[in-house]
Amino acid sequence: MIRPATSALWRAAASFHPAAMSPFPRRNYRWELISACFLPFAIACVEGGVIGVLAQKAFLSREPVASQLSPMVRDLIVAVLTSAPALTNITSIFWTRILHGRDRVRATNLMQLAVLACVAVIACAPFTVAGVFMLVSAMLAARCFLTGIISARTDLWRANYPRHDRARVTGKLTIIVTLVVSMNALLIGAAMDIPVLFGDGADAAPVGGHAFRFVYALSIVLALVGVWAFSHVRMRRRAAHLRAEARHAAAGPEHPASARAMLRVLRNDKHYRAFMAAQFILGIPNLAATPVFVIALEDHFRLDYAPSIILTQVIPVSVVPILVIPLWARMLDRMHIIRFRVYHSWVFVFANLLMGVAFMADSLWLVIVSRIILGAAFGGGMLAWNLGHHDFASRELASIYMGIHVTLTGVRGVFAPFLGTLLYSGWVLTTPPTPPTPATPLSHFAPPTSSDLSSSFLDRLLHFEGLNWGAFFVLGAFSIAGAIMFNRLSRAMRHVSRAAPAHD
Length: 504
What we know:
CATH superfamily of the largest domain: MFS general substrate transporter like domains
CATH architecture of the largest domain: Up-down Bundle
Largest sheet: 2 strands, antiparallel
């Protein structure tokens, strides 16, 4: 029993070795594999789930920040940080244009170094309002550069890996990156939970909370090895590729990533337009729920750093998706993306509603179960996010279709996290009305006039106390609306969505 399991694990591990690859992609895969083992140490430092917990507990909950920033502002800062990975997707359209005609390896190396510089800024940020500003600025900049890296890497993978090897190579690299990010996220949380390093008991509070700085510094050193390794990657037929892009730019045709080209596709392809609309609605609660979860977890349970990061980042974003992606992949291989979404979107519905029940009941076990279910939904969502547009686009238009999809994800990231945060925490846009004194005159008990009613409504609108755990049920309603839209689209495309997608 033990020997077959050990043998299976050994074979699985050996499949990652460059020798297991065909000769053609082996050299570049070797260097990318080394890079994937080291660079993600820095990526973990700017993951939304990690930095959101770190900001909430280490920066925003201590003086002088807690007294200088209102609760609403502090919650909105958490929303900005946790939404940064999605929000910065909107910059992909600019990176595509910037990278056009440039060496992808050299550009990627420069962006990797820029990410490390941003991590260094976060490591040096003091626990002050200025430090919070440094944290937010560095986080947004780092995620913008990571978006550029993803754009450049797509071109490199297309050039360096044949189609029959591409999925296998990129899948293995993705698994390595995910595992390293999860490991370092846990290390950051564990380090922050060891006050003995910086004082015990009452002495720990004033000087504690700095452990992340040492982990971030170590992460930068390790990530430099990944940057060095990536510099050895070579883009196949690089010179010919750059010449073709230069000719394309000189000829002056419309850039494939232009807003005009994207709008033309949305205007002409009504099914893809409806698909994007349904995905937009379904994606709103998925982006809105992350900052709400970070804030609610602190309000209801006040967990240590490590369990907070495990629930926010590791379980739903890293561990569970890796386990369920093969199951979702087999399902997606057999059907059109629309039909896949008809089934898959209800997992998001269940996860969001269960989170609301968990916080309503103050049940940590239900929170854990809801995060596992959300991780299962994210696993299918990762596949649908990366591959769904291929069921609508021809090979020539695939980049435009993906550009539309990524840009709309960025648009959701601009407002959805703030919507969720305000639904949970509320807002105060004016001084709340003063309650009546005990010496209230008899006229106070007169029937309210229409002006009194409108004034009362306006006061409530300007001073909203928030829904607390009820916000998760509102987000669940958005998920239900998205699922219904996919079901209606599936019926409208019945002749297409019931067929398995063609493989190009």
